[in-house]
Design goal:
Blueprint lengths: L1 H15 L6 H4 E9 L8 E9 L5 E7 L3 E11 L5 E6 L2 E3 L4 E4 L5 E7 L8 E8 L4 E9 L9
Parallel strand pairs: 1-10
Antiparallel strand pairs: 1-2, 2-7, 2-8, 3-6, 3-9, 4-5, 4-8, 9-10
The protein binds copper (II) ion.
Copper (II) ion (CU) binds next to strand 8.
Length: 152
């Protein structure tokens, strides 16, 4: 009864293993998208939702992609005069069970120093580096220059 034996072992492992997900496995990335660029002189942008399905805080401390020399997380704010400003965030914390949205007008991935144009219909690989050294990689589709969301 090989099958029964395997099932028993699996159940034992499930019981013994602590219900802690590795930080990289705990984060689910949904709805990633970006916009096509005109050449490479201006930075590119990318958006996504980061869902922490685990039971511990996850901190994103950096980004990596071969598309851009300096990918970083920016936040957008509008001051009292209605002027939009972007600032670089050193890290983004995602509380257990929470979702952090990177979307137009708020948090976003800024792709500084593009190495090639972002072409509609193509995609690129982006890795999120976590505080514990784990990385999560996502394939980001490139939408049109006028896109306002992942379905455009
Ligand atoms: Cu920015």
């Amino acid at each position: 009864m090989k099958t029964l034996a395997s099932t028993t072992i699996a159940l034992v492992l499930l019981t013994v293993a602590p219900p802690v997900l590795a930080s990289g496995d705990a984060v689910v990335i949904e709805g990633a998208w970006s916009r096509a660029s005109i050449g490479t002189s201006r930075p590119g942008v990318a958006y996504m939702r980061l869902q922490n399905t685990g039971d511990a805080l996850v901190t994103v401390t950096g980004l990596r992609t071969d598309l851009a020399m300096m990918p970083m997380i920016h936040t957008s704010t509008t001051d009292a005069q209605g002027v939009n400003r972007m600032s670089h965030l050193e890290q983004v914390e995602i509380a257990a069970g929470e979702t952090v949205a990177l979307e137009p007008g708020g948090l976003h991935v800024m792709l500084m120093d593009l190495q090639r144009p972002m072409i509609e219909g193509e995609s690129f690989t982006l890795s999120l580096i976590l505080a514990d050294g784990e990385e999560i990689t996502v394939e980001v589709p490139i939408r049109s220059m006028a896109a306002r969301g992942p379905a455009d």
